[in-house]
Structure formats: structure tokens, C-alpha cells
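Sequence, please.
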């Protein structure tokens, strides 16, 4: 979510979320994002990217504000897509709130939605809860990734998390990848998935197809050379 206000200029996503909560419009905002994501899922096959999922960030406060599972179920039924094509990104804070979020997360998992834990490593997640909830993806917080090429402690930590992910059959994603040097170190540590400005910046959905086409072309060229 990005918003450029005519007089205030760029408004950051956390501010948008807080404004929606204050206006009691959180459910409407999430539904808007989910519908845009579901439409993108339907468009992906025409881009040569069938079978991929699209992630939606959900703030901790939403679990006590409305039924997230009901909203997302309505969206996937409306667009006729499989729930596994949408990935719900939550923070460790939300995951630990077993009263407000536990039941909802359980329902989302039972419906077939993918569950990802964002900013992993900054909270106090229980490994037992990760296994019980059947989390699909852990996203390692950028604080452990930025400048990792020069940080042996962070390299050791990321390597351990990657090994844990393999043992639990959970995908590990590293956030905040901004330099080719860091990306190469992360690759050597066994990281298969990365996110950050090195790969792309936030962009309007209507420009995404051009971005995907250009990067798919690069991937085809690399494959041909190999």
C-alpha cells in the first residue's frame, strides 16, 4: 500500500494502516488489498507465472477487529481462486496473541491459506507453535540481513535459521537484501528466496507486468547461456 497525498506527499504504509484503524475501516482496507491480490493471482498465468502465490500483510490489530478468515474466504470465492494462492503475512506479535489471533490463524490454515511470519527474529516465537500452526514461510528480519557480508554473527544466525527451515519444511525468505555482495553471501548460506531493493522497489500493480516481463527475459537469457 502506497499513497501520495496531494499536500502531505508520500504516506508510509504503517500510517495508512493506523488511519484505517482509527476510522474503523481496517476490514475495508484489507478487503481492497485482498481483491487486488486475487486479481493478480488470476493474471499471473498470462505472465507465465502460474502456480505462484501473492502475499498480503495483516497487522496484529485486525484479528480482534473483524473476522479476517471470513473476509478472505469471500474474496477467494468471488474470484474463484484456490486459497493456497494467497499468503497471509503476520508478525511474531500477532502469532503470540493466541487469544485474538490463534483461532483465526487456525481457521485460515484449515481453509488452505498459506501463512508466513514476517520480521522473524525480532520477537519471541515458539517453535512448537510454528509447527502446530503449520507455518509455510518465515521471513528473516532485515536487521539480520543488512551488511551480512561483513557480519560473522549474522551469517551464523541466518545459517542456523535456514537449517531450521529445512528441518521443519518451512521456506526461509531473507528481507532487506540491497547489495549484490550480501545476496551472494546469503546464497552461499543456503538462502533460496530474497526480498529487497536489489530486486525491486514498491510499484503500482499496473506497472508490474512490464517489470515481470523484463526480469523473465533476463532469466531466460541466463538459462540459455547455461
Amino acid at each position: 500500500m502506497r499513497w501520495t497525498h496531494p499536500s502531505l506527499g508520500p504516506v508510509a504504509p504503517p500510517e495508512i494502516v493506523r488511519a484505517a484503524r482509527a476510522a474503523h475501516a481496517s476490514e475495508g482496507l484489507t478487503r481492497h488489498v485482498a481483491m487486488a491480490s486475487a486479481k493478480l493471482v488470476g493474471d499471473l498465468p498470462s505472465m507465465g507465472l502460474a502456480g505462484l502465490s501473492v502475499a498480503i500483510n495483516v497487522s496484529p490489530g485486525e484479528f480482534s477487529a473483524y473476522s479476517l478468515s471470513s473476509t478472505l474466504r469471500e474474496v477467494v470465492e468471488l474470484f474463484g481462486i484456490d486459497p493456497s494462492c494467497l499468503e497471509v503475512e503476520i508478525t511474531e506479535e500477532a502469532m503470540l496473541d493466541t487469544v485474538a489471533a490463534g483461532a483465526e490463524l487456525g481457521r485460515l490454515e484449515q481453509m488452505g491459506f498459506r501463512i508466513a511470519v514476517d520480521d522473524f527474529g525480532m520477537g519471541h516465537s515458539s517453535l512448537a507453535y510454528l509447527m502446530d500452526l503449520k507455518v509455510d514461510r518465515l521471513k528473516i528480519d532485515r536487521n539480520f540481513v543488512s551488511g551480512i557480508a561483513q557480519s560473522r554473527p549474522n551469517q551464523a544466525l541466518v545459517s542456523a535459521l535456514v537449517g531450521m527451515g529445512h528441518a521443519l519444511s518451512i521456506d526461509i525468505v531473507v528481507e532487506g537484501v540491497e547489495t549484490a555482495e550480501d545476496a551472494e553471501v546469503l546464497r552461499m548460506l543456503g538462502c533460496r528466496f530474497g526480498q529487497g531493493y536489489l530486486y525491486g522497489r514498491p510499484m503500482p500493480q499496473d506497472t508490474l507486468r512490464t517489470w515481470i516481463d523484463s526480469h523473465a527475459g533476463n532469466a531466460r537469457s541466463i538459462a540459455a547461456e547455461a
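The two ends are 38 Å apart (CA to CA).
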